[in-house]
Amino acid sequence: MNRRNFITTAAAGTGIVVAGCVGETTEESEPEADDTTDSGTDNQTADEVDPEPESEPDPEPEPMFVGTEIEELVPDFTQENPTHDDLVRDDELNENFDAIFITENEQVAVMVDIELESSIAAAEDRMQNRRDRVGEYHDFTVEGADDAFWYEEPDNARTYVRLSNGVGEVVAGRMSGSEMVPDVNRSQEYAIALVEHWQTI
């Protein structure tokens, strides 16, 4: 796929049991009389154990990004970026992404899509759903992120990161001859920079 088609047509994915022993009795045996005087209180036997009180589940932490605008979460990679690419931003190239950065000669493209969920659990579900759709992926450790993974498509590499209720997708490709090919390094490096930017908000 050539570089222009790649940029304009890419889509965002965006217990232990203890047994007790009891004595054997016969039908002829009579129960022994209890010579003790009832004191008015019930004596607790070994089999009468007070049940453990059910503990309340820990409350889910508050989501980090509440009332945050998506644009606040997009780093300005035209000013500073991890691979020192001379990038320009042109979001009109593809409306499926929140931000698109390309080199002026269109040899490199980095596209960013961000989703903010209403809860951390919903963001976790989004990450898992994407894993299920992809099939083959690679878990990825990003300092500060709660979750991350990456995978390749024929003409791009995609890295997903989650921090609290925010999920980011970074798609990267580069030209090799006349074809656009996956750029795993850029996808990962820009995803790391994305998380670093989120931590400043």
What does this structure look like?
The protein is an alpha+beta fold and 201 residues long. It contains three helices and eight strands. It has helices spanning 3-9, 120-134, 184-198, and strands spanning 87-89, 99-103, 108-116, 138-139, 147-153, 156-163, 166-176, 179-182. Strands 1, 2, 3, 4, 5, 6, 7 and 8 form an eight-stranded antiparallel beta sheet that branches. A hairpin with a 2-residue loop joins β6 (156-163) and β7 (166-176). The longest helix is centred in the middle third of the chain and has 15 residues, at 120-134.
Our count of helices gives 3
- In whole angstroms, the N-to-C terminal distance is 37 Å
The share of residues in helices is 10-25%
Category by helix and strand content: alpha+beta
Q: What integer value in Å does the Rg equal? A: 30 Å
Shape: elongated
Biggest sheet, in brief? 8 strands, antiparallel
Mean pLDDT: 84
In short:
With 201 residues, the chain is an alpha+beta fold. It contains three helices and eight strands.
Keywords:
18% helix; 8-stranded antiparallel sheet; 24% strand; alpha+beta; 201 residues
Strand-helix topology:
Layout: H1 3-9, E1 87-89, E2 99-103, E3 108-116, H2 120-134, E4 138-139, E5 147-153, E6 156-163, E7 166-176, E8 179-182, H3 184-198
Antiparallel strand pairs: 1-2, 2-3, 3-7, 4-5, 5-6, 6-7, 7-8
